[in-house]
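Moderator note: this is an archived Q&A kept for reference. The question asked for a predicted structure of one protein chain; the sequence and the answer are reproduced below.
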Amino acid sequence: MKIGIEFDGVIANTPKLKSELAKKFYHRSIPAGMFNRELVVGSKLLSPEQYENIENNVSYSKDTGLMIEEVEDSIKFIQKLLENGKEIKVFTDRGKDGVEIIKEWLNSKGLNLEVETGRDMEKLDIYISDNLERLKSLIGSVRSLFLFTWDYNKHLDTGYSVWRILSWNKLYEHIEFIKIRHEK
């Protein structure tokens, strides 16, 4: 079984680090669960330039990027999936320098995983993202799609083709169910 997982917001708790940087740089208290461009800039909590500065610090500053905490239990369950023979690729929108930071972060957690920038998603059995639009673009080409839920995407209607997931534990249970269903 081939599984694609987005790094930011699914494996790494990027929203939390962005929230901390908003406080540090701009003295703005923005809850991590609400930290996405549309909400933060659209609500005028940060200017587009301020948001970009935070985004670039998280994605391209090695010192900052390596400080990202994992999404609760992500590493534990990725290791379990690997132990159970699943093939996992990590996906990101970051450029080359950002990919190198992700690889280093993953290696520091004991994970030597391939990091992709958006190619070959159609060859996956499962894809997990916090971005509903990305998931919708994969309907029909990836068998099972999961939206990792944050406050910033709770209000979005996933329809019938995308499953909403609240935790890594629940995600793992769904993947095991899919495995059993497809082995029959």
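Archived answer notes: Helices lie at 14-26, 37-42, 48-60, 62-65, 74-83, 96-108, 132-137, 168-183.
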